[in-house]
Amino acid sequence: MSSLHKSRIADFQDVLKEPTIALEKLRELSFSGIPCEGGLRCLCWKILLNYLPLERASWTSILAKQRELYSQFLREMIIQPGIAKANMGVSREDVTFEDHPLNPNPDSRWNTYFRDNEVLLQIDKDVRRLCPDISFFQRATEYPCLLILDPQNEFETLRKRVEQTTLKSQTVARNRSGVTNQEQNIKPQFFAFRWLTLLLSQEFLLPDVIRIWDSLFADDNRFDFLLLVCCAMLILIREQLLEGDFTVNMRLLQDYPITDVCQILQKAKELQDSQ
Predict the structure, then answer these.
(1) CB-based contact 246:184 (threshold 8 Å)
(2) CA of 269: how far to CAs of 35, 100, 156, 229, 231, in Å?
(3) In this protein, which residues make up the domain named Rab-GAP TBC (predicted)?
(4) Among 2, 97, 99, 177, whose CB has the most other CB atoms within 10 angstroms?
(5) Hey, where are the domains in the chain?
């Protein structure tokens, strides 16, 4: 480990050990990449995504509350049919008479329960096989499930973000230069939809995607910065796009050739500073 890397880890630790986290300082550090040692990235992401408050003293209670909330979701959504009805006041004898684990009826709640568990087992196997050589997948992690399982509170915010992104994409589409030249009819939805909706996770290797997310999450206007990253990707292959035909350009855009994400982020930062 180089002295520079050790120094960056120390800088993060200094910020994170304060009673009240200096958010701007944390964003400044995180924008240039977060070290993965000691769970720093996990903790920084939680703060940057507002999962944890800035006051360290409340972290323990917040985490306990969120874990209990997650356990509650499990209890509500993974239900053993017989026990569920018994808890609702139906005697176990009546429950067994109505439905039982060996019931072959496709509508049986037990049948559904067992099928769901088979799916969960397969998901567990897939997760264990997913990038086992990366430390991120070698230990247990906690993620906020509230935004996924209770999306109504965030629906309006998400709608506005998607609307804003769509309007900006339409503006780009009207520009006749470069890849949006109407003579080639290369529409942004052919490539940009995947870039934006999946946060570039299909365009680069996972460690590079995580590095990009460090900068996205650290930026106060993270989705605006995502658009700048996409613009930077286009600018960096501009000459190739101008020379290519429809087939060549679609191949370039759907299998992006540049793997140096630091170069892309640097160009995106230049675009941001020039605004």
Answers:
(1) yes
(2) 20, 61, 29, 8, 11
(3) 32-245
(4) 99
(5) 3-57, 78-150, 151-273
DSSP state at residue 20: B
Distances from the Cα of 90 to the Cα of 12, 52, 108, 109, 111, angstroms: 56, 42, 17, 15, 20
154 alpha-carbon distance from chain centroid: 15
CATH code assigned to 3-57: 1.10.10
Calculate the average pLDDT of the chain.
81
CA distance 207 to 201: 10
User: Exposure string (b/e) for 146-170, b if CB count within 10 Å is 16 or more?
Assistant: eeeeeeeeeeeeeeeeeeebeebbe
> Do 257 and 218 contact (CB within 8 A), yes or no?
no
The answer to whether 228 and 271 have CB atoms below 8 angstroms apart is yes
**Same fold flag, 3-57 and 151-273:** no
Q: How confident is the model at residue 186 (pLDDT cuts 50, 70, 90)?
A: confident
Higher pLDDT, 125 or 104: 125
**pLDDT digit string (tens) for 79-103?**
665 555 545 554 444 444 456 666 6
Fold of 151-273: Cyclin A; domain 1 (1.10.472)
